[in-house]
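TL;DR need structure tokens for one chain.
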Amino acid sequence: MNRFGEILVKGLSWGMGILFLTGISCIMVYLFSKGLGAVNLRMIFGNTPPLDAVFHGKAVFGGLFPAIAGTCLLVVFSVSLAIPLGISTGIWLAEYAGKRMKSLFSLLFDILAGIPSIVIGLFGFSLAIFLHRHFSQRIYPCLLISACSLAFLVIPYIIRTTETALEQIPHSIRITAPAMGATKLQNIFYVLVPHSLTGILSGIILAIGRCAEDTAVIMLTGVVATAGIPKSLLSNYEALPFYIYYISSQYADQQELLNGYGASVILILLCTGLFFMAYIIQKGLAYQALYRA
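>> reply
TL;DR here they are.
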């Protein structure tokens, strides 16, 4: 009976895995077959020469380059805001918090992770209104408000992965540095964090993907259809997820719909590039930690 149960579990696991991969493959094949043909330099840069758009900041009309630039800036600023707070909170939960505090804050962060993104967007919109009324008339929904809202959205993922990565470090590694006279803080920064970098960066990679694809948050906090490349953190901006939503909901002809598919392909490739960069950094840091050990 145990042998039969093991075979049944393995069969179900393989079947579900194959079913999942088949579904993802079908979606990707359909998307790329529809959108890859529409991707070209004219779709990205319009009538503007690519070198002028990239290096001289010349305005791009009818192209996706401002949306690509806005998406990249949004991801960079959001993750840059989320990483310090997320990692530091994860370290506190894993190494300093008592049992009751850990249970309480873990519950709070799990609830925060489950909040719908549209609610986070509404919070960012309310924050922009509050700052506009009470601090500066120049503050409106903008790139900075969107970055703060997305950082608030992805912080729970970074906290959880950091906490889990630290708690999974073997006890033998934990006690080595203190046995040689290192303080708790030195043990954390020179031993525990380097040994948990792989898990921590996994959370950061997840945060990058969530920031790049979310639409509900940015719709309420500063994204517009034709803003161009943002001049500052207080400017409106364009983003690929919003462009895809905008085109798919009110396209005028078949070509515009194909442009939406093309934008989806570009977004997937952009996310893949960001994931690859994070993966290279992850492997490099893991190699350095192994070399030091």
